[in-house]
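Quarterly update from the structural biology core.
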Amino acid sequence: MNPIRLIAADEWRLMRRNRVAMLGLVMLLALSVIAALTSIAQRDNSDAIRARFQAQADQAFDGAPARHPHRMVHYGHFVFRPLPALAAFDPGVDAFTGNTIYLEGHRQNSANFGDVRQSSLLVRFGQLTPAFVLQALAPLILIFIGFGIVARERERGTIRQLFAHGVAPRALLFGKALGLGGIAALMLAPGVLALGWLIAFEGAPLAPSLTLLAGYAAYLGIWVLLIVIASSLAAHARTALMALIGIWAFTVILLPRIAPDVALATNPTLTRLETDIAIKEDLRKMGDSHNPDDPYFNAFKQRTLKQYGVEKVEDLPVNYRGLLAVEGEKLTSKLFDDYADRQFAAQKAQSRFTDTVGLLSPAIALRRLSMSAAGTDLEGHRRFLSQAEGYRFAIVQQLNQLQATAITYDDDSNRNKDPEAGRRVRIDPKNWQKVPDFRYQAAATGEKLQAALPGMLTLLGWLVVLGFGMRLAIRRLADAA
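Predicted structure, tokenized:
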């Protein structure tokens, strides 16, 4: 039999006899299975709740009684972001960003009801999902299982006996890596089964699912090589253990926690309150549709009268108040979009900074890949916000157009004085029943794969660097022999 396979088989035999190793492996597998089952159930339940609430919101909007169109503008509407199937594997930023938005005229609200705002602070550390188990816990268990995989041979003096029997340093290290890699593959098995279930029964897309699988396999492969290299270079197993735990704490816990804070400090963004204040100030400078002497809207009035060839707004064939509402919403929505674009640009800069830090931490690179492939990254949230804003603008303008065409200017001006005019401005509710329901469009498969590419390239870069590290370790062992 090939010496590499013989060494790997011997490692598996030793690990089966190691009660601590077996207990750690069994506990991790049990935790992975529990994480997969609970995460899938939680995702399905959460998505069903959002779908039910969305149906209720649509029914409430369509069922509104006859009223003034502008009342419907302020009555507003709720939209919910549906969860992608792969959110059961990696929920990404969903717990932090919120999942529903209240849409109304003249305002652009933020998403609300994120799990972090409603749950224990433990949610900030990490939800029990297959992604969290494989990203944070699996490397730690691998370290405790394999820290002495080469160092113990040196401590016992058996490494020279192996070399004396013709075992090459290269075969020794690759055999050890294959043995530990088999344990890593076993750790990955529950995640593979979870992805298989999501593909077969939840409609998860195949290519992003396979990308997830490849990313997590590469990540565990990085830790396998790192453990073997550290164990071969360390003089004692205890030294290797301390070094590996330090690397794990730095790359898996510390850097992912510090990187977003540093990114925010280097690329600051306005808070929600600061944004609202800035928008209010800009709106005052831009124009006030309620002020008859406002320069912008006075010029708009003159353009409108000239367009229709009349001298007074009372002579217009449409309701001037509705035209004002349409123009005012155009201005405010453009301002909202400008501020949103600035916010997204700053967030992208923060993400680029975090990706750069990911060169020092395979955990950060894997999280980027995992959330991008699952469709639960910040870009997915941005898509939801953008589509919700586009939907808000469309329904508000549709209602404003109804005010302009379905109601006369005279009735609109006297609705609070004349009961008959007040009755006539309440138009048929069939008009809002014609408003289309919100349908969120997730990113296409190609977009997800493109977003996951930087993370995958970083992981592959780590594998290449550790490949050179293996060559160095082989050379050191050969010199010691």
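Residues 116-125 have pLDDT under 50 and may be disordered.
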